[in-house]
Amino acid sequence: MKSNSKVLILGVALFTSMQPFSKEQEVDLTTDDFDLFTYLADKYIETNIKLQPFVKKSTFGIGYTSFDEKVFPKIGFIGYQFTDSQEKDRLVKLQLFKSEKGWSVVNVLANDKIHQANPIYTFKTDHFRSKHSRRAKVAAAKESEAWFNQQGIIPNVRSTSVSCYMTKDGLKASCHTIYGLKKGDKVSCFSKSYLMERQHDIWRMAKEISYDQKVSYSSGDLKTIKPFSMRCS
User: Fold this and answer.
1) Are 25 and 19 in contact (CB under 8 A)?
2) Which of 13, 133, 143, 213 is at a distance of 20 to 30 A from 164, taking alpha carbons?
């Protein structure tokens, strides 16, 4: 069975071009539209989260994951940064879920957490590579989340994405977390990379590796490659 996992990561730049829903416009909750994400997030925050006065609002890390070619289920994320007159930021991180009824906000993620390390839904599949690739990604994301907190940089981490490449036997994977780190008014891209190993059904970090390292599909040995350019938003 072929895996069709797809992740879309977009952020602040896209938000500036979005047109909000009008009050008269009927909202289609089934559409995979980032305008809908911002609409649902704004409504949720207005109803459920008390905010101090702010002078600037921006989004980060907007995206969704489609597990296969079906319309649902899907999971999504949108982050908000609210900046007050003292240039202090407050983050709100929201996780969304799409059922047959459409999209809804289902969880407020704590500010010391990242979306990929705290999945709100586990896609059930008997496909070996799909199942263990996802487990490796979550384990690598948890390593990155813990490191962000240990380094004290989690308040400045914006977008995050995690990718893994697994060996043929499914015992090793090279995993790379790309994250946007806010420094002043700019967000710069960095990476945190790991060699992950599987024992039974549990994935654990074996060691840290470089962004230009990847496991060999056949042997599991690490090799140096020309990596893709890092993108974050």
Assistant:
1) no
2) 13
Q: Which residue in 175, 157, 168 sits closest to 61, CA to CA? A: 157
Number of structural domains (the chain) is 2
CA separation for the pair 37, 163 (Å, rounded): 23
The number of beta carbons lying within 10 Å of the beta carbon of residue 89 is 15
59 neighbors 38 (Cβ within 8 angstroms): yes
Give the containing element (helix H, strand E) for 63.
Answer: strand 56-66
User: Which stretch of DSSP H or E encloses residue 134?
Assistant: helix 128-151
3 state DSSP class of 182: strand
Judge contact between 62 and 10, C-beta under 8 A.
yes
Q: How long, in residues, is the chain?
A: 233
Q: Spell out where 84-185 has E strands.
A: 89-99, 102-109, 157-166, 172-183
Model confidence pLDDT, tens digit, residues 11-51: 332 232 334 555 546 899 999 999 999 999 999 999 999 99
Q: Looking up tokens 């590579």, which residue turns up?
A: 129
Cα(45)–Cα(209) distance, integer angstroms? 39
Whole-Å CA distances, 126 to 60, 119, 133, 172, 197? 33, 19, 12, 19, 20
Task: List pLDDT tens digits, range 81-119.
Answer: 999 998 899 999 999 999 999 999 999 999 999 999 999
Task: Tell me which DSSP letter residue 41 carries.
Answer: H
User: Are 139 and 99 in the same domain?
Assistant: no
Structural domain containing residue 79: 1-109
